[in-house]
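Section 5.1 Outputs to date
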Amino acid sequence: MNRKQFVQALGLLLGTVPILTATSQTTAARLPGACVQPPFLFPGSVIGITATSGAVSTDAISAGIQLVRSWGYQVKLGRTIGTRNGYFSGTDEERAADLQDLLDDPQVNAIWCARGGYGLVRIIDQLDWTGFRKHPKWIIGFSDVTVLHCQLHRMGFASIHGQMLAEANTGFVQTKQVLEGRPPLYQTAPLAANKTGIGEGLLVGGNLKLLETQAGTPTDLDTRGKILFIEDVNETLYNIDRMLCNLKRSGKLAELAGLIVGGFGLAKGETAANFGRSVSDMVLEHTSGYAYPVCFDFAVGHQPANWPLKCGVPHKLEVTGRIVRLVELNDAQPANQVVLVRGND
């Protein structure tokens, strides 16, 4: 009996207990062009924690670790937690080695980044993905982790754009539900600035600055036919405008299936009145020649409401005058969905 036959036989013996293997896929993951979704998590799964960029103390993530363990998961703490080398959590070599260890470990089912900041671009080209390809795992994080999301998308693997472990709060349960295979449905209130329409495509995106600066590099993100989401923080309006101009000039905005604009916290003292236009004004200007739907104030980014988004997975974006809805295209029953709703807050 080979390994595959053994797993199938064991599944029959255990009845309703799901056996998750590296080839476990949802319907969404099997659709043409969709990324491979790593196996979903279950009690006893191992989550590796690493600081790929800025330094973070053990105390800063203690609440997150406690929460993860309360879900029934085990934790493998990376060597970069609680260490420092100037701004960073370690030298480039130390940070790359720590992440590499988690990527290679077949017992690790997911990697949760402790915090962002800056630093992944310094180590991304040092990583060997051979072990990861054999044993795919979910990678979770946002902001600087956009670099990893883009790398994984280029390789054909799905990932989760979501809160860092150092930001542990009650909203983390949504990430748990997504990690365990429940397809998300996101609903938010309509805004006058939205451009109505319906689009379907793989969901991709992240931090606007990182998406812009990766153009022409090995982690350049192909946005054609995709639903793109963008967010940023502590930026001036003229710099946001410049980044949007660069995305447009490089063709990143031309063939989208939809555009989702998340949180855009401005630099101190920055106002739309002083610059003469708001973020929504600039987005609509740079996308005026395109017919796809655009929505604003989505719950993603450097803000309390930062929903987990499955990158590389097919979604449908519906923007109407009554509601904004983003739903994963999946064969799961509606009762199994994770419904996330945001009103006018």
